[in-house]
Amino acid sequence: MSENIHHHIHGGVGHLSLARPRAINALTLDMVEAMQRVLLEWRNDPAVQAVLIDHAEGRGFCAGGDVAAVRRSVLEDGGAEGRAFFHEEYRLNHLLFTYRKPVVAFMDGITMGGGVGIAMPAQFRVATENTLFAMPEGAIGLFPDVGAGWYLSRLPGRIGPFLALTGARLDGAECLWAGLATHYLPSEALAEAKARIIAAPDSIAAILDELSTEPPEARLTRNAANIDRFFASDRLEDIFAALEADDSKWAGKELATLRSRSPLTMKVALRQIAQAKALSDFTEEMRIEYRLAARMIAEPDFAEGVRAVLVDKDNAPRWNPATPEGISEAKLDAIFAPLPEGEEWAPLT
Ligand code: QUE
Questions:
Q1: Is residue 174 part of a domain?
Q2: pLDDT tens figures, 180-201
Q3: Which pLDDT band, with edges at 50, 70 and 90, does 59 fall under?
């Protein structure tokens, strides 16, 4: 069992805590497999009526996945270990999505990438004044995975494509406004919320409702009209053209952000979100995302992006292709194509 996952049964509640604080609880394969084992056990344990997921210490819930290890695998062993990581991480995401007991996730602090994948499937998602939510994969040449195609495509207006392309960080008030969180609690109330849930796991909704407070105004409400207008198209070239044609400060800032992101990530994300919107089965979304993960980690942008952001930390990635025009529809077709027989993703049974 992983030393980076704490698990206990208190009262009628299974309590999972992420405990890898030196990496803001970024998920490793070992942590993912430990969470799978515990959740499978609790699924059939009548003593467990609900599951609570939080982090043990430090300033974030979960910063993502251990993408530095995935990068090493790509450079050293052809990516087999990297693919295994995503395969099992997506199985964990799917297990939570289909879990037949209530799950409460506490998104107190940084909740990005892999952290989003374990919080969003929860029926109850608690944001606080510390929540910092993002899908920042465009900065490392990956794509918004862990089920994000599903969640982002179901947000109001064009907020999903906006979050996927820019990697914008949302605070707790914005998460509540967008429906990414179901409740907003002051962090000082979390200890009481957890204690009361453990004492009365059949009253989670009432407990969270009672401890909820009014969040500050969500900044996103003021930008929603701009987001819907400038990010209206599923064609990346159209979004660049719309931002370039406008001389507002907001458009200039978003344009500068998009110019810093991987063009390949952005094109993949737009197609992924458009496709995910039409799906009726989360399993199919995860099957598609695993194809994307297997292909995208082998593209040069992934090793380069992780180098620039997490290894050398120069924040100066050199993307290849460097512009949207360099990426053909045929290239995208190849990235989205089914994997060979025997290599496709399947959920845990
Ligand atoms: C994009 C990402 C990740 C990221 C930064 C990005 C990501 C991830 C981490 C991360 C952060 C701190 C750590 C760590 C990993 O950063 O997925 O091990 O200590 O896990 O711009 O997708």
A1: yes
A2: 999 999 999 999 999 999 999 9
A3: confident
Region 243-270: mean pLDDT is 98
ω into 321 cis (within 30 of 0): yes
Distance CA 141, CA 298 (A): 10
Please state the rounded mean pLDDT for residues 13-37.
Answer: 98
Is position 266 within any domain?
Answer: yes
* Domain membership of residue 10 as a residue range: 5-336
344 located within any domain: no
Distances (CA, A) of 321 to 23, 239, 263, 300, 302: 30, 18, 7, 9, 12
Catalytic residue among 14, 65, 82, 305: 65
SS3 of residue 19 by DSSP: coil
Q: In testing the pocket of ligand 1, which one of 30, 112, 313 has its CB within 8 Å of the most ligand atoms? A: 112
The residue-averaged pLDDT of 247-254 equals 97
The mean per-residue pLDDT over the stretch 234-240 comes to: 98
Tell me the average pLDDT across 11-16: 96
Q: What are the percentages of helix, strand and coil residues in the chain, rounded to 5?
A: 55, 10, 35
Q: What percent of the chain has pLDDT over 90?
A: 98
CATH code of the domain in which 286 resides: 3.90.226.10
Residue 1 pLDDT > 80, yes or no?
Answer: no
DSSP string for residues in 193-204: HHHHHHH-GGGH
Question: For residue 108, which of 196, 201, 172, 20 has the smallest C-alpha distance?
Answer: 172
Number of domains in the chain: 1
- 348: in domain: no
Q: Which two tokens stand for residue 60?
A: 């974030």
Atom of ligand 1 nearest to the CA of 24: 19
Atom index in ligand 1 nearest the CA of residue 68 equals 18
User: CA-to-CA distance for 270 and 277, rounded, in angstroms?
Assistant: 11
Beta-sheet pairing, 124-127 with 183-184: parallel
